[in-house]
Structure formats: C-alpha cells, structure tokens
Design goal:
single chain; alpha/beta; Transcription Regulator spoIIAA; 7-stranded parallel β-sheet; 7-stranded mixed β-sheet; 21 helices; binds iron/sulfur cluster
Length: 565
C-alpha cells in the first residue's frame, strides 16, 4: 500500500472530520517519509474512480491560493542568439556546448526543462504549469508571468506577439474548460489530465498534448482580444515581465513592451564599470544602461536589475572585492540607477564560454561561495527600503557549471554571515508580512527620492515594522507616451500582501485591515494633486484592470488613467 491508497481507504472507512483527517495525514506522512503534507485536492486527484463518490464529501475540492497569493509562471522562449554576439560568461544559445538551448541557460534548469518538454510552445508551457499548481492544491488565479531566455525583444515581432497571445489564450482556455462560470470543475480537470496516473507515462502524455493542441487551434483571437477576455476569466494575468539588456530596453522597445501588456522589465545591468562591460562583450555602454533605466521608468515599468559581482576586468583577472562592493553601493547612491528590485547573480564559469578558456589558462578565478556571500552581505547594507532583493543565485544546478559558487548553499552562507555581522536587511522582501498576522495599528509612510531625473515616492502601509502593502508613485520629467502628459503622475506598482488579522481583534480593528490598496491609491492621488498633477496614469497588468475600474480609472491605450482635476 502507498500513502494515497492507505489514506483514501481510511477516509472511506472512518468518514473523518477535518481535524481527524489532518491528524491522519500527518501520521501517514511520517510513516511514508513524505516531507510535504498533501492538500485535499491532491488526495482527491489521486483517488481511484471507484472510491471517488465515497470520499468526495470529506475532501475540500477547491484549490486554495498560493502562499504569496500570486502564481509565478516562467515561460521560456525558444533557443536563439543575442544580436551582439555573446557575453563572455554566458552559456547556451544555438550550437552551444549544451546543443540548442535558450541563450543564458543550460537546458538543466526547471524552467528550461519545461520549455524543452513542451517544444517551447508558450501555450503548452502555461497549461502544464497551471496543471501543476492545481495538482498541488493551489489556485493559480493571479498569474505573474515572466518571459525568459536571451534578449526577447530581439526576436522577430511576430514571434514576440504570438508568444504573448498564446500565453493569454492558454489562461483564457484553461479558465473556460476548468473554471466554468468561475467555479473550479475538478471532475473535468481529472478527466482531461487522466488523473490519477503514474508519473512519466509517455502514452498518457501524448494523449494530453494532443488534447491541449486541439484547444490551442480552436478560436483564434488577436492579442488585444485575448487580453480583453483575460480581464474577466478565472485565471488572470496580473503582471508580465520581459528580460532584456539595456541597448534593447530603450523607449522604442518600451513602447513595444507596452503593446504586449508588459508591466515589469528585468534588465541586465551587471556592473557600473564601462571597461568591464567592454571586456565581457556586453555589447552596450554604461550610458546605455542609464538611458534604458530612465526610458523604462518614464514609461511606468517596474525595473528589476540583474547585477553580477565577480566579473573579470580588462587584465582577465577578477575585479577586487572593494570594487564589487563599491558597484553595489553606486547603484543605490546614484539616482541614475536605484532599482525597484534586484537579482544578484555572482559570475560563474560555464562550460563552452570564453570565460571558461580564461579560467582554464589560470587567468580568471571565480568567486567562491564564501567570497560571494561576503559581497552580498556587505551590499545589503546599502539596500534601501524601496528595493526588493528577489534572488541571490541562479537556478542553474551546480553540476552544470565548471567553477564558481555552489548553488546549493549560497543562500545559507548569506544568512549565516549576515547574522554574524549583525547586518539587518531592510529590503522589501525582508519586511513583508507574507501570510503573517498583523499586530499593531497600521500607518502610512512616504519616502521620497530622486531617480532618473524624476521624483519617486515609495508609499507604504506598515504595522510594527512589517510591510502590509506599498505603491510606487513617480513624477516623470518628460512624456514618452501620448497618455502621459507633462502634468501626469505615474503609478508603477501597487502591491498589497495577503495577511490575517489577529484572532480576537475587534470589528474596528478588522475593518482597519481592509482596503489597503484603496488607501494607498488615495494617498498617491493626494500627493499627486498637492504637487500640481492633474492626471494619474497606472501601468496595470491585464488582469488588474477591473480593479482599477472600480477606483474610477478607465483605459487609455496600455494604461489605466484617471483625471485628478
Ligand atoms: S545579453 Fe544576456 S543572454 Fe545575451 S549573451 Fe549577454 S548575458 Fe547572455
């Protein structure tokens, strides 16, 4: 007997209460050495047909929200090349050491493997990812999609548009088939995906792929139409991220991103030293980086910088620790940078790259795990409260690298070292309430700072030093889109965390914890008005447009806008 068959038979026999069932799950997890406790939906999906009727009423058959409330869907673009050639440390691409894989990837990362399994078809990738969320008992009703692999805007326009259109079609079709009238239909889901079934059965996979492709070919709509449909369906795309490099992230590219529905850009800044950009063959200058940041910010995008400590300098040797730390300090002290989010990926030596040759000759020695952790911890001292550190390591498995930090324990080193040095990170991630309980009376704080020639306001709601939500307001110094007038203010991000209110809280306290988004927007509008702005322009994910409509906003091109007159 395995975990599921024992639990299902037991449920059939004992007709348990929720508490009893939870206890039994724990007991069986120990017996079968399962680390994760399966959700009710997961159990239900593993119930053989003959027993479904008997156990259905004891299992909650509705998937619940993911921990963060948002389901990330990483979609890998097809293998390609970057137009400038290759950065000296960058793996992958066409005819690479790994064969044809997306540029910057090895084919071993979970997201690339999903891409390969699904022939890099965004429709199938999205279906596959949504299926996984539901099998784990999580409801992916708010999707944050990221398009990965190389320099996406350098692909032909038609490819870019089809990629996004098919992603949206997948959200819409998935919603229509498995969430008729907004309600999850577990039976339809079980039937379609032939569950329960053993993992890796090729015949079953072929049958499911055929069914997915049949849906894909039905009822083709244009991108704009798919996006409008997505405003009302069960699975909504609330944010779309595109990865690019600065010389493919100027205003002209940004205007195209807006047409695709993009709300955030991941930008490969890597370093603030021109000579390093040159000797690593980045194909752009520092001036390009600054221009791209300013252009994208003035169009309203959230910007996530990728930074790479431990790069080689012109001599071929790695730059020293002090310069790496100074680089990280510079991106926060210099208003021409100041990222909203940050990914710190220490430079690794990857097979088949020019950097690997330098390494083999003994000219270049990459950062060790300890050295990388040291630089990251020192950098944390400069990270302000308006920035979120998203990641400190890539998801490339260590076995796929030649040399460099050990993927499996960098984060652990960083945590231990920060503790030892009493470095308390104040970034958004370290202060967000997550699923915690709100303690104390929330208050609104406003931090003002200069960035790329404009004024930024980081407006947050906090209680007991925990972040409950925030909004990013910008006064752009110029107009890069007809919807953005010179008297417009921009909302680049609104984020409210899922949270609980302490048990026993009074009705008054409970009501204080409602409508944070509305309160933050009201404060942003107030600040804009007192500063002489007469229009608010919001860069809104397609799936959040309906929310802004409720606040009096209307569509103008890719934005949601409201008069403040
Ligand atoms: S721009 Fe990015 S994807 Fe392209 S070669 Fe450089 S690191 Fe790789």
């Amino acid at each position: 007997m395995d975990f599921f068959s024992e639990l299902i038979s037991w449920t059939e026999e004992h007709k348990p209460s929720k508490q009893l069932l939870a206890k039994k799950k724990l007991q069986l997890c120990k017996k079968y050495k399962r680390r994760e406790i399966p959700t009710d939906v997961e159990i239900y999906l593993n119930t053989p047909k003959g027993q479904v009727g008997a156990v259905r009423q004891y299992l909650q058959t509705k998937p619940t929200r993911t921990g963060s409330g948002v389901a990330v869907v990483a979609t890998m673009s097809k293998p390609g090349i970057c137009p400038h050639g290759s950065c000296t440390y960058c793996p992958g691409g066409l005819n690479s050491y790994y064969g044809d894989v997306p540029k910057s990837y090895t084919g071993k990362e979970p997201s690339t493997m999903r891409g390969i399994r699904n022939d890099y078809d965004p429709y199938r990738i999205v279906f596959n990812r949504l299926e996984q969320y539901i099998v784990l008992g999580q409801n992916p009703d708010k999707v944050d999609q990221i398009i990965m692999g190389g320099t996406f805007p350098a692909f032909p326009k038609k490819y870019q548009e089809d990629f996004v259109r098919l992603s949206f079609k997948a959200y819409n079709d998935f919603s229509r088939v498995f969430f008729p009238r907004g309600k999850f239909d577990l039976e339809a889901f079980k039937q379609f995906f032939e569950l329960p079934s053993p993992v890796g059965n090729p015949e079953r996979e072929a049958r499911i792929t055929k069914k997915i492709l049949a849906l894909k070919d039905k009822q083709a709509h244009a991108l704009e139409e798919e996006e409008v449909l997505n405003e009302q369906v069960a699975i909504r795309c609330i944010g779309l991220t595109i990865e690019t490099k600065p010389d493919w992230g100027f205003a002209s590219h940004g205007l195209e991103f807006l047409k695709l529905g993009c709300t955030r850009v991941e930008l490969g800044i890597q370093t603030v030293y021109d000579e390093i950009l040159k000797c690593t063959n980045r194909g752009h200058t520092l001036a390009d980086s600054k221009k791209s940041i300013a252009d994208l910010r003035d169009l309203g995008f959230k910007i996530n910088f990728h930074m790479m400590p431990g790069l080689p300098g012109p001599s071929g040797k790695r730059i020293d620790r002090e310069r790496d730390i100074a680089c990280m300090r510079e991106i926060f002290s210099n208003p021409e940078f100041r990222p909203d989010m940050l990914k710190i990926y220490p430079c690794m030596v990857m097979p088949g790259t020019p950097l690997e040759k330098q390494f083999r000759k003994g000219a270049f020695v990459p950062l060790s795990t300890e050295e990388a952790a040291d630089i990251i911890v020192e950098s944390k001292k400069y990270v302000p409260e308006y920035c979120r550190i998203m990641r400190v390591q890539r998801d490339i498995p260590t076995y796929a690298t030649t040399a460099g930090v050990n993927r499996t324990n960098l984060r652990q080193y960083v945590t231990e070292l920060a503790k030892k040095r009493s470095v308390k990170c104040r970034c958004i991630r370290c202060r967000e309430i997550k699923q915690g309980v709100v303690k104390g009376k929330p208050s609104i704080n406003v931090q003002e700072y200069e960035a790329s020639g404009g004024k930024e306001f980081f407006i947050s709601i906090e209680a007991s030093d925990k972040l409950l939500g925030f909004v990013r307001l910008r006064f752009p110094p110029r107009s890069l889109h007809p919807a953005i007038t010179l008297k417009s203010a921009l909302i680049r991000e609104l984020h409210v965390y899922g949270m609980a209110v302490a048990i026993g809280a009074s009705e008054e306290e409970k009501s204080q914890h409602k409508g944070y988004g509305k309160k933050l927007m009201a404060e942003a509008e107030r600040i804009a008005r007192v500063n002489g702005k007469d229009k608010m322009v919001v860069i809104s994910g397609v799936g959040v447009r309906a929310y802004y409509r409720k606040l009096g906003y209307a569509r103008e091109g890719p934005y949601m806008v409201k008069s403040l007159k």
